[in-house]
Amino acid sequence: MLENAMIMHNGYGIKDPQEYEPIPVEDECGIKVFCGDEILVAPNGSVVLKENAIEYLTNVLGYTIRKAGE
Q: Residue 32 belongs to what H/E stretch?
């Protein structure tokens, strides 16, 4: 029996693996966060990738990087 591809969900009757793929969100630095990435979550709910923590502290929050004793 042939199915009409126009009335089937994805045209072939086969489950589309991208159909339920999670949509990435962006952290506070504008970088996409995917499932499995290590993140830091602030009490207000904002998210920063772990590898962007220094960039976030300096660029967004205004911290300066110095050496102790300077």
A: strand 32-33
Q: Count CA atoms within 13 Å of residue 42 on its CB side.
A: 12
Token digits of residue 14: 């086969």
Tokens matching residue 7: 């009335």
Give residue 8's pLDDT band: very low, low, confident or very high (50, 70, 90): low
Q: Is residue 47 part of a domain?
A: yes
10 lies in a domain?
no
pTM: 0.58
How many domains does the chain divide into?
Answer: 1
Q: Locate 12 and state its tokens.
A: 């072939």
